[in-house]
Amino acid sequence: MLLFSVIASAVAPGIALLTFFYLKDKYDAEPIHMVLRIFLLGLLIVIPVMIIQRGLTLGLGDSPFVQSFFISAGVEELLKWIVLYYIIYNHVEFDEPYDGIVYAVTVSLGFATVENVMYAWYSHASIGTMFIRALLPVSGHALFGVIMGYYFGRARFSKGVRTKRFLVYSLLIPLLFHGTYDLILTTVTDYWLLLMIPLMTILWYGGMGKVTRANSRSPFRFLKREEEVNT
C-alpha cells in the first residue's frame, strides 16, 4: 500500500502540471489525443536517453560540468527538441504560438514522470522525498518545456532568419537552465537551496510571463473577443 502511494505521488505532479499548462491555453485548446500522443513519446524517449547518456559517460567521463550540461541536460533537451521538431513543428494542430508550450511541456512531463517513477521504485523513496521532487525536478522539466515551447512558437510563426534564431533559442536556453540546475545539485552540498530557490523563482516568473506572451500572440484572440461581444 505504501509503495502504491509513493508511485502515485510520482505520477501525480506530472499530471497536475500538464493539466495546469493545458488549461492556460485561452483560445484554442489542443486535441486530447495529440497531447496523449506527445506525452507517450515523452515516456518512450527515456530509453534512448539512458542508452546515450551511458555511452557518453563512458566516453567523456564524469566531471560535474560535462555531466550537467552535456550528458544530462544536453541529451535530454535535445531528444525532446527532436520529438517536437519532427512530430509537431509542421503539424496542422500547431496553429498558434501557445501550442508550442503545450506540446513542449507535454513531452517534458512525459519524460519527467517516467524518471520520477523509476526514482520512486528503485530508491524506495518516502512521500516527503517525492513531494520535494514534485517541487524541483518535475516542475523543473515543465518549466524547461515552457521555455522550449515558447521559442518553438516564436519560430513557427516567424519568417526568415528569425525562424532559425528562435529554433536555436528553443534548444539552447532550456539546455542552459537545465544544466545550471543539474550543476547546482551535483556540486553544492551545503546551502544548495540558497541557489536553487532563486533559480526556480526565475524559471516560474519567466515561464508564466512566456505563457502570457504566447497567448497574446494567438491569431484566435480576436475571434474570441468577437464571440464575447456577440454574446
From TrEMBL:
Q: Which domain of life is it from?
A: Bacteria
Q: What is its EC number?
A: 3.4.-.-
Give the stretches traversing the membrane: 6-23, 35-53, 65-88, 100-122, 134-153, 165-185, 191-208
Tell me the GO molecular function terms: peptidase activity
Protein family per UniProt: Belongs to the protease PrsW family.
What are the GO BP annotations of this UniProt entry? Answer: proteolysis
Q: What topology in the membrane does the UniProt record assign? A: Multi-pass membrane protein
Say yes or no: keyword Transmembrane present: yes
Keyword vocabulary terms for this entry: Cell membrane, Hydrolase, Membrane, Protease, Transmembrane, Transmembrane helix
**InterPro entries according to UniProt:** Peptidase_PrsW_arch/bac (IPR023596), PrsW (IPR026898)
Compartments, as annotated in UniProt? Cell membrane
A Pfam cross-reference name: PrsW-protease
Q: Where does it sit, as one GO cellular component term?
A: plasma membrane
Q: Name the chain's protein.
A: Protease PrsW
